[in-house]
Fold this protein.
Amino acid sequence: MFESLSERLDSAFKLLKGEGRISEINVASTVKEIRRALVDADVNYKIAKDFTDRVKDKAQGEKVLTAISPGQLMVKIVKDELAELMGGEAAELELKANPTIILIAGLQGSGKTTFSGKLANFLKTKKGKKPLLVAADIYRPAAIDQLKVLGGQIEVPVYSEPENKNAVQIAENAIKEAKQNGHNVIIIDTAGRLAVDEAMMTEVADIRKAVQPQEILFVVDSMTGQDAVNTAKAFNDRLDFSGVVLTKLDGDTRGGAALTIKYTVEKPIKFVSMGEKLDTLDVFYPERMAQRILGMGDITTLVERAQAQFNEEQAKKLEKKIRQNQFDFDDFREQLQQIKKMGNLKDLMGMIPGVGKAIKDIDISDDAFKGIEAMIGSMTPQERGNPDLIDGSRRKRIAKGAGKEIQDVNQFMKQFEQMRQMMKMMNKMGAGGKGLKALGR
């Protein structure tokens, strides 16, 4: 995500680092490189020029030339301007009405149906809502089935009328159904086309007129770059939507759509969607995204994702086991499962400041834990509960059962033991501060 843009901006800032002497020429060269980086990231030239003009004015106004760390000050100015370009503040959904009607629109293949499922899951798990999904795509044969599969995975009902070819009527009937069954959010998945056409626009506009939604979300594939921005403008002219959803953001290393869609249509980006998993939906925070583009990480989102998987009762139980030096392989496997639920592993590591650049060329698969899980799965319940039981012959059996070499098991056992020792040491340090006092001597 934004990989090439991040690299180009980093190169631009190097013009202000380690030069010994900063001049107006250095600043002008940096601004010029920033503009080039934005244009290469599929940002419209006029927008890129307006952006860099503002950066230059701010840089001169904040006396970058006389600053102790001109490079750092320039990074901060660019970060603030990037955040502003993408909307400044996060935009919340309007959920006061009961029921709240959310209309989903966009081109075919943009990811509308998958997003509808993700949004239903988000509203159910994060906002405590009782959503109803509505299959109003009457053209794509698999659309209804796809929505039903997604609804089944998150235990959210789907309203459909497979024989009815009137999308407006389906939407109206769904609202009656929702009111009768106490659903407080209705998510209407509409049909898409391969290109913007009059028939599609008219149908979506008719649904909008009939159901009067509180939110109209335009779903756009960010990988289509400036085409995405142009499509958004065409939809907005007809629908006057309330917000944008960027899908497949993890597949685009340039990011032009994310940077310029707010500027062009003057509507906020409300969500970013990455991957197929139904829990991979994030509220769009412009400042956090600006930090990630500039390689500053995104600790806030990382902590929020961890907290979403946090179980207080389990945490207390785990803390007690660590305190008694009883942390075992069952506990370790449970922690791996928690990490996997947080999302794509490389994406998570990229949220740690400084790590993103270090791992940019490393392929980190979501299956990275499979070998470890196979080894743990090859252990008996007694071995998982008491790691000290595992001698040489047991290690050979575990390796064979997991399809691994004995060296792999030995290395894993060594790392596990080091981790246990570290936990033991941290526990001692926390016991009445005695450990900390000992370190201070």
The domain at 3-85 is CATH 1.20.120.140 (Four Helix Bundle (Hemerythrin (Met), subunit A)). The chain has 21 helices and eight strands. The longest strand covers residues 100-106.
